[in-house]
């Protein structure tokens, strides 16, 4: 019933509208080359920031081309000041000790009451922020107020670098409900995976807590602490043993994005409530459309089991279940602090996880 494209794909299409045409693209069949080894989240080859958040290890030159992903750290992140928000992701060096969030696109505005506003204007293509750290299973709660305008989508999602994705989305004018969805490596495991959860007090005027409780075997979506949907890993494991359950470390992302624009597919426009009306009185009054975020709390599922000194996650090869192995290491995540993956040889790989099972450590780094 609900029509939905992966947020990664939609944002990729928007980004490609302005992409430099000379840039090498990358995908599952054509990985990046030596000169520009890292495949960015939008499928372009490059160096530096291309090797950080969103860098797809399976589409890059090798599994060790992307920088290691900053390990999960439990926290309740608020927006009373922006000292730990980097306003332009291009300048991020991978140091998650310095920043909690990077602004990937658009603008984050502060308010006198301590929340952050993600804004959408006629020209900015919306705004998106990403956590600098990754979550490899955990409970993430965002307290937010959504937009309320046709064509404008508010989203709170987790997104892995190989596009495992878990969503809370709030399309258009539907301010009494939220939609849950999930993707495995960019694909919808079943056509009807999107679900709507309703009967909320106005999500534009009232804060609600939206939770993604992502554990190794169970994924639960909650609103204000009440479970509204549960998915088991076994629900999406095929008879061939391939698990279509989101399984790789993911960044937390919040965004307001323009679905109701002429460049979108008709289904996307319809899903979002129609084309955006930039003559809306709210837009005229504020100068932008917006969604407000008060806090994001993260409880990592793995923080107790990770050894002291754990800094990062790295990818290993695919398993027979077509999910790459993920290892916890002490490799640096900072670009330039020891050069790209130069520490691999001496780094400790403490634990390897795939689909919840421990693996032989020797097999992890290739
Ligand atoms: C993968 O990328 C290569 C090189 O850019 C391109 O020629 C090919 O068409 C792409 N394949 C797909 C399926 O997009
Ligand atoms: C990361 O940032 C922290 C805090 O600003 C700083 O102390 C540390 O030296 C930085 N690490 C690297 C490797 O640059
Ligand atoms: C971030 O910085 C880059 C490089 O200076 C610039 O091209 C880009 O427009 C900036 N992005 C934003 C959102 O300001
Ligand atoms: C919002 O940001 C501006 C510009 O950085 C700053 O001058 C102002 O003090 C901030 N306001 C609040 C309430 O933090
Ligand atoms: C919606 O919530 C109200 C107030 O809690 C309740 O009375 C009503 O039965 C609910 N309606 C549905 C359809 O769940
Ligand atoms: C996060 O901290 C804020 C400010 O202290 C608090 O109001 C909020 O309840 C906390 N959120 C969670 C989910 O713990
Ligand atoms: C890993 O499996 C995925 C399918 O899940 C496939 O697209 C990809 O090419 C495989 N990668 C490697 C390195 O075998
Ligand atoms: C990682 O741990 C190993 C031994 O456990 C140590 O030799 C190495 O220096 C550590 N690397 C970093 C970057 O801390």
Question: Gist?
Answer:
With 366 residues, this protein is mainly β. The protein is 6% helix and 35% strand. The strands form 4 sheets. Strands 4, 7, 8, 10, 15, 16, 17 and 19 form an 8-stranded antiparallel sheet that branches. Strands 5-6-9-18-11-12-13-14 form an 8-stranded mixed sheet, covered by helices on one side. It has a 5-stranded antiparallel sheet with strand order 3-20-21-22-23, with no helix packed on it.
Molecular structure report:
The structure is a single chain. This protein is mostly beta strands and 366 residues long. The protein has a single domain (1-366), classed as Jelly Rolls. Helices cover 6% and strands 35% of the residues. It has three helices and 23 strands. The strands form four sheets. Strands 4, 7, 8, 10, 15, 16, 17 and 19 form an eight-stranded antiparallel sheet that branches. The chain has an eight-stranded mixed sheet with strand order 5-6-9-18-11-12-13-14, with helices on one face. Strand 11 (152-160) and strand 12 form a beta hairpin. The structure holds 2-acetamido-2-deoxy-beta-D-glucopyranose (8 copies).
